[in-house]
Amino acid sequence: MKTWFHSWRAAIRIARRDAWRSKGRSALVLAMIALPILGVSALDLTYRSSELSPAEKLERTIGAADARFKDAQVSGVPIFQDPTGDMHTTAKDYKDEPWPSGSTDVTKAIPAGSTVLTDGSGSAKLTTAHGLLGAEVRELKASDPVARGIMTLLEGRFPEKNDEVMATSHFLESSGLSIGATLSARNFDRPYRIVGSYELPDSLATDQVNALPGAFLAPYAKAVEKAGLAAPDLSVSYLVRKSGGFTWNSVKEINTKGIAVVSRAVVLDPPAESEVPLNQKEGFGGYQASAEASAAELASLATVVGLAMLEICLLAGPAFAVGARRSRRQLGLVGANGGARSHIRAIVLSGGLVIGVAAAVTGIVLALVLTLVLEPVLEDAMGQRFGAFDIRPVELLGIALLAVLTGLLAAVVPAFTASRQTVLASLTGRRGIRRSSRVLPVIGLVALLFGGAVALFGSMVSQQVVLVAAGSALAELGVVAMTPALVGLFGRTGRWLPLSPRLALRDAVRNRGRTAPAVAAVLAAVAGTVAVSTYMASREAQNRAGYEATLPYGVASAFVQEEGGRDAPAVREAVQRNFPVDVRADVARISVGKPGCSPWDSGAGCGRYEVIVPPANECPMYATAPGGGDPSEKYTPEQRRKMLTEDWRCMDSASSGMYVSDGGLLIGDASLLKVLGVDDPATEKALADGRIVAFNRALVDKKGTIGIKQITDIPAADKASEEGRPAPGKVSTLSAYLVPGEKKSYGLQALMTPATAKAAGLSTAPLGLYVSTERLPDSEQRQKLDSDLAKLGSNIELHLEEGFVNEYGIVLLALAVFAGLVTIGAAGIATGLAQADAEADLKTLAAVGAPPRVRRTLSGFQCGVVAAMGVLLGSAAGLLPAVGLRLTEERDELRYYEQNLAEGWSGDLTPPDVPIVIPWETLAGLLVAVPLGAALLAALVTRSRGALARRAAT
């Protein structure tokens, strides 16, 4: 034991001294190992610091209160909830009964003697320095000790009067306002002075304004209603502090009144799962990942980590090899003085150990420093403040051990190679005759064949992505093991090459110990790039084939439906001003109830409409049946399939496409037909004659009319819908013209002019516009339009049809650049080692009259040969996982298609097409540009003349 300790101690001291002497090589290897350690350590520190404890979460949600009470909006019926208060549902199952909906008085459930703080929130369009900005308005007395922790005051003070507010820093930045400025809201002429700036620790990017309870939302709602608009929704909860807090039994008792509770005591000390009634209800049990899923995640993580370590080892291994070669005289002296081969191996392995420990310390220390320094930047990027700066020593130690293990693995092959050198060869500098292992290529071939078989089995039989990934990784490792033999095969092409490339190829083949790892490193990087590029190119081709335009090419639409379309005129002018408009078509929608109601408003005075589909035109599979139920279930699969393929009522029609309004009905003129590409004089004439133009024949009854029902009693309509009865309402009947043929209308099902709507007694509200463009707007024009629309503060639905847009182009370019950098780096390392080894040969060439450029061209070709071999092998190896994954997806889609077809849910008789596309542009760049660039770069950085020296006799 003592001998072992002292021998390793001496080996480590020698390795540390050699690392210090070769600072450049040591720094290179240290950087290769330390950079991944830095990234993983920083990720661990960031994740753990952003992971809040239950106490920290409670501080940000309920402050210093003991609980938060909130109405579950189920009319006060008993509910079940989870311990955190995030999920709840009614205690009773309402399968065949109307779901309870309505509010209850929460204050009656608050125990007497409790301290209560009201927390209300709503939304408003607030005035800013640029225009209007939709923001949340929160009424909470933030200065109260009960609310401590919910809001963090940054500057100024908390509101103390009803005409004072404070705003989040994000709101102040977006609005252009500052402390001391005043703000108000649209339709609300009461000014409020900003007295402070704050932030929400859990949501830094929130635009929010804080006021005292009752100071803003109630008067604002009255002003909005007075302007004929629907009042904004208001959400109210109560922060409660009570001596003793609220136990789980107390929470369950409060739940019987239809109130959900977030209790500090329960969250910090949750009950057992068996004591939570919600877990007993179907669909609400505890969700846990299956053992298979957990094993798959661990296997995927292990594969990624293993491949990353392999890549680093392949890149760093040659550096340790050249270090051992330059120290061969020193190692020979160790052997000459009685040192065993194990001592030689220990010295070289200690080099990996020293570099690994240094990389671990450097990476982790830098991660700690950078995470601390960049903490504000990370918090802004994540949108929340960290909790405590959480350092997990065990996790960091595990990451450090990975660095040490990587350093040791990178030095294993050089260590065994150095230990096999004889003492005489080490002292004289002779290399001797080195033969490649015949066993390793055989093992690699077996791994390649077995891995390929596993990948194909996973894609063709079992359809498991894990098997495809595992088989592909094993096959790639097999190709890596075969690299020395493959390098030898490449050497046979040297007889047809000129002098410099022939010397470079011969040198690469004769010194496979340094060539093979570099080629394998390039192979691994290129294989990953080719795999991802092939998969993404295939997905792009599939998405392109399945793309369906929502509008004609170059046509834009902009809709604004809130507040009765109040901002529609401003939206129209902004589009007209910023886009190269050719034809403009203004459109409106039918409005029921007060003019300021939005289509989805269900408040007092608001209503909705529906375009009636005659019973004879309804698809039997989808027709509403009295008493509810699914009518399609009474048909056999063959009957359903026949209806989907032969019955026009069930086939896809003009009802498909972009959503424009309820029933696909718009109010407009013939310019809309022109924008949508509907060129039919008869249709234009019918529209001008006051008829409603229909693109969907299911809307037109036998009399050639269309019925539009105005519904003013929404609760009665909802009840009728639950019971399977027609909704009560006034029906207006209009003469219709059915557009002949199957003209593509892009979601538009019916169109009538404003005059026709007025004659039928239908009120309208502005909606927006369609425009055709002379050319696609450029980036500057789009940015100007976005800026103008943002000033309105409205929710505007803007769409510009550009055709299919490839989302993967930048990713493919980034992958190609990454593979190129790794290739040049690995080839550069191999070239540097080759120059060190071939210095004597270069001096001999110079002595016999070779021109100075030979040194430069030889260096370039050495680098290019390594890059070319690695890229070629990597391109072939990378196709296997991509093809396997695409075959797996094809079988999944085919199985889903066959299942739908067998059950009668699909009428499409065309099987899915899952193409496999080779990204030839990326491959061409890798196969041609990268090796050529590597060769030119190596040639440029190499000196034409070496240092003068005497040729040593050997």
What structural category characterises the helix and strand content?
A: alpha+beta
Largest beta sheet, briefly?
Answer: 10 strands, mixed
Percent strand: 5-15%
Computed over alpha carbons, the radius of gyration is 37 Å
Distance between the termini: 41 Å
The residue-averaged pLDDT reads 82
What would you say this structure looks like, in words?
- The protein has 954 residues and is of the alpha+beta class.
- It is built from 29 helices and 22 strands.
- Strand 8 and strand 9 form a beta hairpin.
- Helix 17 packs across helix 28.
- It is globular, with a radius of gyration of 37 Å.
- The C terminus is likely disordered.
Question: Topology of this structure?
Answer:
Layout (H helix, E strand, L loop, with lengths): L1 H20 L1 H28 L3 H9 L4 E5 L7 E3 L6 E3 L24 E13 L4 E8 L12 E5 L7 E5 H7 L6 E4 L2 E12 L8 E4 L5 H10 L8 E7 L6 H8 L3 E5 H5 L22 H36 L1 H9 L4 H33 L1 H8 L10 H27 L3 H6 L10 H24 L2 H17 L1 H9 L7 H12 L1 H35 L8 E6 L7 H11 L2 E11 L16 E4 L25 H10 L18 E3 L2 H6 L5 H8 L3 E3 L10 E7 L2 H9 L7 E9 L11 E3 L1 H6 L3 E11 L5 H12 L5 E5 L8 H29 L1 H9 L5 H51 L16 H22 L13
Parallel strand pairs: 5-10, 7-9, 16-20, 17-19
Antiparallel strand pairs: 1-11, 1-12, 2-3, 4-5, 4-11, 6-9, 7-10, 8-9, 13-21, 13-22, 14-21, 15-18, 17-20, 18-19
What's this entry about, in short?
By secondary structure, the chain is α+β, with helices and mostly antiparallel strands. It contains 29 helices and 22 strands.
